[in-house]
Amino acid sequence: MISRRRLLSLAGASALLAACGSNTGRGGSGQALKQWYHAYGEPGVQQAVEKYAKAYPKIPVDVQWNPGDYDSKLATSLLSDGGPDVFESTLQISSVRANQVVPLDDVFGAAKSDFSESILATHTVDGKIYGVPQAVDMQMLFYRKSFFAQAGVQPPSTVDELVEAARKLTRAGVKGIFAGNDGGGGVLGGPALWSAGLDYVRDHQVGFDDPLAAQAIGKLRELYTSGSMLLGAVKDWAEPDAFTQGLVAMQWTGLWAVPAVQKALGDDFGVLPFPKLGDSGRPSVPVGAFGAMVNAKSKRIDEAKEFVRWLWIEKTDYQEDFNLSYGFHIPPRRSISEKASKLTSGAAADAVKFVRDNAKASNPPDWTSVMRTAFNDAVSRVVRDGAKADEELKTAAGKVRDELKRLYG
Amino acid sequence: MRNGRAFWLFVGPFAIGLLVFVYVPIGWSLLLSFFDARNTVTPSEFVGLRNYADMLTDQPFLSSLGTFSVFAAFIVPLTFVLALALALLVNQISFMQGFFRSVFFLPTACSYVVASLVWKLSIFNGVRFGLANTVLGWFGGEPVAWTVSTSPPWYWLVLVTLRLWLQLGFYLILFIAGLQRIPQHLYEAAWIDGARPGWQTLRYITLPQLRTTSVAVVLLLLIAAYQAFDEFYNVLGTDRGYPPFARPPLIYLYYTALGSGGQDFGHGSAGAVILTLLIAGVTLLQGRVITR
Amino acid sequence: MKALRYLALSMAAVLFLIPFYLVLRNGLATEQEITARQWTFWPSEIHWENFGALFANPAVPMVRSMVNSLVVAVLQTVGQLLLCGLAGYGLARIPYRYANVVLYFVVATLMIPAAVTFVPTFVVVSTLGWVSDLRGLVIPGLFSGFTAFLFRQYFLNFPRELEEAARIDGLGHWGTYWRVVVPNSKGFFAALGVIAFVTSWNQFLWPLVIAQDQDSWTVQVALSTFLTAQSIEVTQLFLAAAISITPLVVVFVALQRLLVRGATETGIKG
């Protein structure tokens, strides 16, 4: 015979379980829309996007900030029914094929012509637009003018000069260059290809199956082994701390870091694109834009679309604030970027010029995460392990070719 | 069938849970492993054994098994020997025995996440202020980028010492329990026969008497190494994914099926099935060895 | 010889305590002290205000994640003891035609570590709509074939006389279990319970997979997220780590005996 008290405590436990379950449950009408961002490193952005969401008059919106490996996390959540309704991401053709995102062409309306075409193109697959560009990000090389002057080194205009400069600028307590704790394999792979005039993918074909690619990636290995690279810093390449603390003479980071660097170093720095390898290549800067997207599994697609329209099309003052008040980004809309006074002088103006002259899409839709993983693994093995560049790239090219075949037949 | 009702009253809730959360997933996994299941868990394209063939020829997957082997080759003997040595030492003293036992057991309270934090950011930090590099500096050494450098692969030192610190106490307790089960009269008889305390009694009494414990410890260590995920993910993973080396099997499956590596449940499931078979094989072998 | 033993043990003990020292030192220092080129053994002044900064930092959901961890650990401990205890008793003591079949199914799961099946389990749990949900965090971990098996082995050796006395008093299986067996097995339940709590508190892979929303993060997921992101105050990260291990260190110091027993039970019989 079970005692009443025991029975009660049992019932209590299961009730607690059920109650807690419904607490975090979702999906009912009248509940808040869920919106995800990756973690921007600049102070104030999180508060800003929360402020925008709170200001939305129609329904409550919960903002989630996602530090860590955002791509993996987003990928997992889009598979389940528990994902966000609205999220920021770059567009991949595989998400379109798997029906994970919905077309947003009707959201744009007349504002469509105000967006930069090249940026819209990175959010377009088969003629449909799936993301409303929020902010254009670009990466470039920051260099410390005074360190260069001391060492008598000129800003590099070729990859060889870059390697040489890094070597000359290395002295006790200061390394020549910082390009991420992985030694640059993660962020410099693309720029290295472009420096040789190659590409990730071209017309549904592998763009780096070329001896020049091996040579370009080999240069990254040379840089890595030269002893002039900072490794194992506390904060990674996306934040300018190593550069502003004087631990390095050069750092690969992005336009967003310009305000922080200006604050720390004043005028004592300049910016450069990634230099060209030889005559066949060109200097380049990776450019990309996170776009606001709507999860196809959302139970309230229309409400989510309306929110996206309100936030990223209608509220132009928010877009201006988001792009320019914290880190620097280039507003994707001409009407805003043309009157952005912060981008008309100094390093920011140089960055805008690089974007005009040397832009390469950092995450084109036809460069899926499977391809990116294959390519980055190969680069990383070459740079960090000293594996043979031509063999590794051939393996990666094989995987990219398989994936292209799967996507395009 | 009164007993039937009573039986299911006791076992039923558990059995249903086991069915739903263990057997259904395994069955589903088997099913998925025969399909092209990218970005979906309800696939339609049957591919037969292709996923298995792919995984068994997939260089990263095979090298993840290699990674496990390297890791196990370090961590299993090291933990075994050190735990046994410390257990013998602790067992031989009387004053402060409880204190030492507690100290060695205390790391078990920490998660791999916390340990990774300490190891990655404080002990084996690549810059000058990390503890390891500070100590190196006292002896005039240059700072080493512990978790980045692949030649020599210093990250193994980081990962092995981390796990050693975390798990040693647990196995130490197992050995102490084993030691305390050895009947005292065996030692006394040996002393009468002229055996000297120390190496001889260790060799001819202690180690043979610890046989069951030892086999259990080795197997537990192996299976734990097989399932390594937490410290690898937290020490070597970054916000842009995981580097293409030192990937133990679970890390590789995580990135294949759930991570940015393509949400490929077909290949992920096939890999999981292969791993499960391997572990089940090892466990069965263990049963043979123990009951022999 | 004796002195040598103590020397060796003391040296090992110091090595084992260094990480704890580092967590405290880094958590209570300033960022400058940690990153200074000169090693400081202890912060020149203890920065208690780091606590305030940590709890005020909206980016680190410290309170929420600690509460989540606690709720998950408590529910998993209670649930596991309840379900696995009942099942273990049924398998050990209630004669039934298909009992052996069920036992085989339980034992078979011992060969498949839960960690390896996290992908398919995620598939099932997400189909149930339990992603980022307490149910998804707690329930799949309740059905441990291993714990049920340990309970069965334990109940096989439970003194029959006690049960027979209860039977004579007119109690059925259910009454016998709750009135006689459980009260006389408190030590065993407590030992497995403590181990279950520690395991649950420290688990990482499953919460990482299933707790997508920040609101459902456990403390391990929260720490890991900021560790891999590396864009947080280092002092706060270490302080958060210190706070996350405090409950378990207290449990450890208070319940040493139970833990040792639990470790021995769960270790050897495995």
TrEMBL record, chain B:
Entry keywords, A to Z: Cell membrane, Membrane, Transmembrane, Transmembrane helix, Transport
InterPro entries: ABC_transporter_permease, MetI-like, MetI-like_sf
Residues in ABC transmembrane type-1 domain copies: 65-286
UniProt keyword Membrane, yes or no: yes
Membrane spanning stretches: 7-26, 65-90, 102-119, 154-177, 210-229, 265-285
Subcellular localization(s) per the UniProt record: Cell membrane
Domain of life: Bacteria
Protein name (database record): ABC transmembrane type-1 domain-containing protein
Organism: Lentzea aerocolonigenes (Lechevalieria aerocolonigenes)
Automatic annotation (TrEMBL), chain C:
Transmembrane recorded as keyword: yes
Keywords associated with the record: Cell membrane, Membrane, Transmembrane, Transmembrane helix, Transport
Main localization of the protein described in the UniProt heading: membrane
Keyword Lipid biosynthesis: no
Position of the signal peptide: none
One annotated GO biological process: transmembrane transport
All copies of domain ABC transmembrane type-1, residue ranges: 66-256
Regions crossing the membrane: 7-24, 70-89, 101-125, 137-155, 237-260
InterPro entries cross-referenced by the UniProt entry: MetI-like, MetI-like_sf
Protein name: Sugar ABC transporter permease
Species this chain originates from: Lentzea aerocolonigenes
